[in-house]
Design goal:
With about 300 residues, the protein is of the alpha+beta class. Helix content is about 35%, strand content about 15%. It is globular, with a radius of gyration of 24 Å.
């Protein structure tokens, strides 16, 4: 995007302070999301040995003769380090971790759309004036006024997001549910946040300045993070339900990819030999094409 997150008309509706608060909130949430994606992607690359090269770190002994992992070539041969494939030294592992971290930083800075223009021209991209990472304003209401059932009713069906992460400020009226695949149950993060706030502030002394729901963010992994994490972090299946007449107000940020950028597995996630089938299939594809391929088929 061009860095202007809001239309000029926004200030006339919510005022200058309100506009700046919305920009600040988006920037905070996008940075949190980028940090999470960076850590998860780097950890998954390390776990897959995607940047590991045995014998990549060659040191010099005091006498000036070359060595591997602090041993001379003769000592390394006797110990088996120079011959045994896959026996990485500690230095090799540290180097792989550094490379994985640096590559993950590149991914978050180049591929993820944080609402700021991409600096430099190292990669192909085609950004317009609008960020592809929407900050949505949602209102969920129970339109069935005649129903007085205490059981919650689903008003937004179960789905996953085609994002790296979706970040949701906790709402005062709970209703977001995330499916826990281990227990095969729906989990309500906003209810858990409310309970946690009560333990920290039993008398509610902070509520006048900072209501409990203003202190919590819910971060849900999306389909793009499932891709870059090599399926280690599956996309969160979630839905919205209501159990009261009070509407649920929500303002999620869906961190997506910059338009025109491409998935370069070797640049961002290391060796193609260590890539899974989905990564190999997406390698070289534009992120828009990956986004479209992940959408539910109309036949489903």
């Amino acid at each position: 995007s061009d860095g202007k997150l809001l239309p000029e008309e926004t200030s006339s509706i919510v005022g200058e302070d309100g506009s700046q608060s919305m920009v600040d909130a988006f920037n905070v949430m996008s940075q949190i999301g980028k940090d999470i994606v960076r850590i998860v992607t780097a950890a998954s690359s390390v776990d897959a040995d995607a940047f590991l090269t045995v014998g990549s770190v060659v040191s010099q002994e005091e006498e000036g003769s070359p060595s591997i992992a602090g041993l001379s070539f003769e000592e390394a041969t006797v110990s088996g380090i120079a011959e045994e494939e896959g026996d990485a030294s500690e230095e090799d592992m540290v180097r792989a971790e550094i490379l994985a971290s640096e590559a993950a930083i590149l991914l978050t800075e180049e591929i993820m759309d944080d609402g700021k223009p991409l600096a430099g021209g190292e990669i192909e991209h085609d950004e317009g004036p609008v960020s592809m990472s929407p900050h949505r304003m949602c209102r969920y209401s129970n339109n069935n006024k005649s129903s007085r059932r205490k059981k919650a009713s689903e008003i937004f069906g179960a789905h996953t997001d085609t994002s790296f992460v979706t970040i949701v400020p906790a709402a005062k009226v709970s209703g977001l549910e995330v499916f826990d695949e281990d227990s095969l149950q729906w989990y309500r993060p906003e209810l858990n946040a409310r309970k946690h706030a009560k333990t920290l502030d039993p008398k509610g002394n902070m509520d006048e300045q900072f209501p409990w729901h203003a202190r919590y963010l819910i971060v849900m992994p999306g389909e793009l993070l499932q891709l870059t994490s090599r399926n280690n972090v599956p996309a969160a299946v979630h839905r919205v339900v209501v159990a009261t007449d009070a509407p649920r107000l929500s303002a999620p940020v869906l961190l997506r990819a910059r338009p025109g950028t491409k998935m370069d597995v070797e640049r961002y996630m290391g060796s193609l030999e260590n890539a899974d089938g989905l990564l190999l299939e997406s390698n070289g594809m534009k992120m828009e094409a990956i986004h479209d391929a992940l959408q539910p088929s109309s036949k489903q």
